[in-house]
Amino acid sequence: MLDTYKHKGLRKHLVTLVRNKGITDENVLSAIEKIPRHLFLDSSFTEFAYQDKPFPIGNGQTISQPYTVAFQSELLMIKKGDKVLEVGTGSGYQACVLLELGAKVFTIERQRALYMKTKEFLPTIGYRPRMFYGDGYAGLPAYAPFDKIIVTAGAPIIPEALKSQLKIGGILVVPVGDDIQTMISLVRKSETEFVQNEHGNFRFVPLLGDRVDEK
Length: 215
Ligand code: SAH
Fold this sequence. Notes:
The protein is an alpha/beta fold. It has a domain at 55-202: Vaccinia Virus protein VP39 (Rossmann fold), CATH 3.40.50.150. 29% of the residues lie in helices and 26% in strands. The strands form two sheets. A seven-stranded mixed β-sheet has the order 5-4-3-6-7-8-9. A two-stranded antiparallel ribbon has the order 1-2. Strand 3, helix 4 and strand 4 form a beta-alpha-beta unit. Residues 61-64, 87-88, 90-91, 93-94, 108-111, 114, 135-137, 152-153, 205, 207-208 line the site of S-adenosyl-L-homocysteine (SAH).
C-alpha cells in the first residue's frame, strides 16, 4: 500500500490534534507527521489510522493512541544516540517514533505471533529496531544499561529489573495500575535513589506475566 498525499494531509491534521492536546516537543510531532501509521493497521482499517484513537492489531492487543505515544515519547526526553528499551513492541509504531527521534531502539514483545509479524513488517518501511521475543518484566540484561526505558502496557507495579537496567541520570516511563494506569516517570539519581513523578491517568492493555502466550 502507498503513502499518498491524502495520507500526508491526514497526518498533518493528526499532528494538529495532538499539538492541541498539549504536546509541545517538535521532534515528537515531526515523527508523527512522518511515520505512515496507516501501514501499521490491516488494510481494511486504514481510515482509522489518523484518528487520535487506539486500534486493535490482533492477539488482543492495540496500537496505542497517537496522543499517548507522543506523551510517553515527550516524557522520555530522547537525545540523539540514546539507548532505549521498549517493553511491548506491538505494531512497532512507538519504536518507529523513537527511531525518528534518533534513539538506538531495543524492543521486546511477549507474544510470538506479534513479534514475528512486526519483525517482518518494519524493515519493509525502512525501520530497523533491535527486536526481541521475550518477557519485558525481565528487561534485557545482556544489553543494559539503558538511557531510557518505556513500557507500553499497564504494569501492576514498576518492575525492579527495569529500574536496575537504567543508567544513572536515565528515565523510565511506565503506566502503573490495573484497570486505569497512572503514567509514572522515574529518574535514576544514583545506584539506590530514584525520583518519581506522576502524569495523569491512561488506559493500556495489561502487561502479560510469565504464563500467558501463544494463541
Ligand atoms: N508499543 C505498541 C503498543 C503495544 S500494546 C505499539 O506502538 O503498537 C502492548 C504490547 O505489549 C502488546 O503487543 C503486548 O503483547 C505486549 N506485552 C504485554 N506484556 C508483555 C511483556 N511482559 N513483555 C513484553 N511485551 C509485552
